[in-house]
Every structure is written in structure tokens, then in C-alpha cells.
Amino acid sequence: MTRNDPIKHVFIWPALLIVLVISIFPLIYSLTTSFMSLRLVPPIPPRFVGFGNYIELLQNPRFWHVARTTSIIAFIAVALQYIIGFAIALALNARVPGEGIFRVGFLLPMLVAPVAVALIARQILNPTMGPLNELMALFGFPNLPFLTQTKWAIGAIISVEVWQWTPFVILMLLAGLQTLPDDVYEAAALENASPWQQFWGITFPMMLPISVAVVFIRLIESYKIIDTVFVMTGGGPGISTETLTLFAYQEGFKKFNLGYTSALSFLFLIVITIIGLVYLAILKPYLEKHK
Amino acid sequence: MSVRALKGNGRWWALAGCLLWLTFTFFPLYWVAITSFKTPLGVVGGPTYIPFVDFEPSLSAWSELLSGQRGQFYNTFIASTIVGLSASLLATVIGSMAAYALVRFTFEVKLLSAVIFVVIAFGGYLIGYNFLGLRQGPSLIYAFVAALSLAVASSRLRLPGPVLGNNDIVFWFVSQRMFPPIVAAFALFLMYTEMGKMGVKLVDTYVGLTFAYVAFSLPIVIWLMRDFFEALPIEVEEAAMVDNVPSWRIFFGIVVPMSKPGLIATFMITLAFVWNEFLFALFLTSSKWQTLPILVAGQNSQRGDEWWAISAAALVAIIPMVIMAGILSRLMRSGLLLGAIK
Question: What Pfam families has UniProt attached to this entry (chain B) (predicted)?
């Protein structure tokens, strides 16, 4: 498949160099500081503490709480994005009437700055002046605490994530659907396979590789969520909607506790790596079966 | 196409679902648009929905914004545009070249060389910083150069141990995006500050911000473009190779035109990422090259819940992306691009 040609170095080195330069410094810097006790405010001289920061973190119930909240938001949001996104991509691919308008319209949320989305969400979810409050009041539930009660707030954050990132799933899955060959479907139609059978027998298996990639990207990105939460709830009420990145932000840039923050981000990295590896390990047999 | 088109009732159910989703998608955007034309009293008085019927639109929020009462909107807008366009263009070009190389050429990196790179980069930095009395910046540069040259030199030797192939390199690239951006942003800020002490100003400059954005867009570009390149038929390239067309001409003359839809989609995604990015801009810029998300986010904390003004500010960040989406989707659909595939 692949060939050998000296020009390959010209192709790959620009990307390689840039990523090396910009990734190795954060790595070196944060890994070394994660083993030290280092504060900027008040400035104390760095002191080597070994795994002290890590142990302290693992014993901190707040860390576990924050990790749980982030996982709940990420998993529910990505599951909804995938299901809705796949359904819409299928509809668009099947030439639903008005497909051209939908195709442009559906992509819009992805392009809106998360900061702006969160500000809009705050307006809509406002418990007294917002339109959603008026809608709920029609059903007899006025002044619901959308952003100030844990369950509602998490639901609101998940809805905003779904609103914003389902378009990404639609875009990628639609691109994938369009590369599927027609002849398989022609054969299936000759065999009188129902649309349901066609989906589970042809479309879904053939879309599995790109699905795995899309869900993986979204999962990793969702774990890094900060700007939406930051603007919408600020982690509140209390710490009930605080996510991992927001926790790191609070520790690092409010308390300037750099050693602790670096250790936190490495734990974060480990959590994400484990989730990624488990995810790929679970799906690998299916991927290979359909190759 | 016709085989997969829906028939009968299914078609209408799909349409109903799409319309429902369209409402959900558009309502927030509609809401922010009309709110920007409301007066302060009109916002506080409770929700109103239709201009001229429900409320009398007013341009006060917009005139306040455009007259510069709420910060340097023009400069910020221009800075955002320049950084966004150039960073995503560079990332798409460099990233798709790398992605193509990783799909079509054979790469073999010995694991030991990679280990040498990491060990020397870390060790050199620690030695330079702790024992040679160098500052963070110089020790990092020396360690990087030493690590890179030794790693490249060592790959020429016959080293034992496993060999990393193309997939491992792709995985390495993609894994860069797993790194929590908050620490990367802060570490980058410190690195840029160190560079500033050495006479190379990178904080709040075009080069510094663009460079960071290119680096952090590359993993996603490489992953996306690799999928597109892998889906291309290799026969065309093989035919060109038989005619002794050099590889760079195969890439720019055949592969790039064939994968234009993919390239444009990737460019679009990258541009959206860069345009909307918050964390890096927060740390790496202060005034001159500040981008729009920072300015928009500042509106709420500076002025409180002044939804009419916040809506206008948010729209300044939103509208260019909406226009771009319109233009690009037109391009994607027109024969101009699709015709190139044939």
C-alpha cells in the first residue's frame, strides 16, 4: 500500500516540528511541576514533594465529584448527539424535502462561539424573563430553577452541548454516508430488505469506523468542557456542575497552586487515556469484523 | 441516489423530525437577534417574540456597540479575522501534507529513538535549569535541539526494539488533543514570556497566537484528512507514478483537487475552532491581538445582565461564521468543486 520516497520528509516535517515544539514544553513543564509544591501567590520557593500532589488529589472528595460530573455531562451529551446526529444525517442523505436548507441550517450551532452560546442560554433559561419560563408556565410550572438547582443545571448544560455539537456529528456522518456505494443498497432492495434491515445490515456496520472516530473526538472534547459551564453556572450551585477543567482553572488561576494544578491535569490526562483505550478496546473486535 | 431516497410516510416523518430540530436550532439564534434590537425596558418587561408586533425594535444597543462605547470592537474583529484565516489555512495545508504522507508513504520510527528524544528533552531541561544555571527558556531550547538531533541521528543506527509505523505516528498526533488545554495554555504563556525575556516577543503578537492555533489544530486536521485521503482511489496515483510524475506533483495536481470537499470541510471546522477559541486567546493576548470571544465574555462580567448589549456583542462574533457557512455550503454544492472529482 504505502511506498517509500525521500520527499515524505518534506511532507511531514513541518507538522511534526510545530507539534513537537508546542507540545513538549507544556509536557515537560507540567510534569516536572506536578511533583513539586509550587505557588505563585504567595510566592514560595519550589519544593520537591514526589507524589504528594497526586495523593492529596486522590484523597480529595471534590476531585471524584468533579470527575463524576464531567463524565455524566460528557457521556449523556455525546450519546444524544450521536443518536440525533445519525438520524438527521440519514434523513438528509435520503433527500428529505428541503434538504438544502436543512443542510446549511443544521451546521450553524457548531460555528457559534461557546461563550456566545452560553450567554444566549442564560437569557433563554432566565427563570423570570426568559421565554422557556413562559413556555413552562403555560404547562403550569412557572419559575423553574434552570441554572440554580443541580439536576436542572446539569440538564441545561447537556442541552447546550447537544445543541452546539450535534452539527459536528451530522457533518461527519453525512460525509461518511455519501461515500457508501449504491450497489449494495440496490442489491438489498432487490432482496426486499426493509429499511430497518438495510440500516442494521448495511449502513450501520459500514459507518462503524467513522462513527467510532466521531464519538471518540466528541467524547474527548466534551471532557474538556469549560467555557459553557463557566459562563452558564460558574460551576454552581456550590460545586455541583463543576467540571475537571473548571476545577483546574480554579486551583491554578485563582489560587495559583501550580503543582497541584499540574498533578490534576495529569490525572485528567490519565482518566481520558483510560476511557479512550477502553473505548477502542471494546470496539476493536467489531471494527475488525466489518473490515 | 434514488435507491436510498425515502418513500411514502417515512419521508414525512423524517421531514417532521428535521423541522423540529430546525426549530430547536434556530430559536436561540432568533432570540439573540431580536434581543439585540430591544430596549432595556423591553428586556426586563418579560419575553416578547415578534418585532413591530410585540415590541418596538430599537437600534440603541447597536449604536452603542459601533460607536466604541463597549470596547475596541473594530480592532478585535480585524485581529480575529486575520488570526483565524491564516491559522486555519496554514493548519490545513501543513496538516493535509502530513496526513497524505502518513497515508501513502512508509514511516518507520524506532521506539528507542522516540524514547531518546523524550529522555534527553526532559533530562537536558532539568540539567540546564537546575545545574547549569540557565533560565527556563534557553535550557528548553538547548534541550530540544539536542534531543531532536540525537533522536534523528539515532534513527540511522540499527537499534533494537519495536518499530513504530504510520498508525502509531497518527495516534501520537491525535493524542496531542487529549492534553487538557488549560495547562497547555498556561505553560505556553510561560514559554512565551521566557522567549520575551530573550528578545523574541510572542505574547500578544500575531506570530505567537497563530503559531499556537496552528499547532493545536494540526491533530484534528491530520485525523480528518487522513480519512479523506484513505478513501481516495489509489489507481489514479498509481497511473501517474507509472508516468514518473514526481510525488509533490501527484499531491498538488491530483490529490488536492480530488479531495477539495474534504479540504474545505476541514478548513471550515478549523476556522470555527480558532475563531471561537477562548482559553488560549485569554492567556496569550492582552490588548492588541485580543480576539472576539474574550471581548464577548467580558461583556457579562463588566456590565451584568444587560441582555440587549450582550446580544449585539455576541452577534458580532456569530455573524461572520454564519456568512462563511453560507458561502462554503454553496461552494460545496456547486459543480465547481464536485466537478473536479468526476
Answer: BPD_transp_1
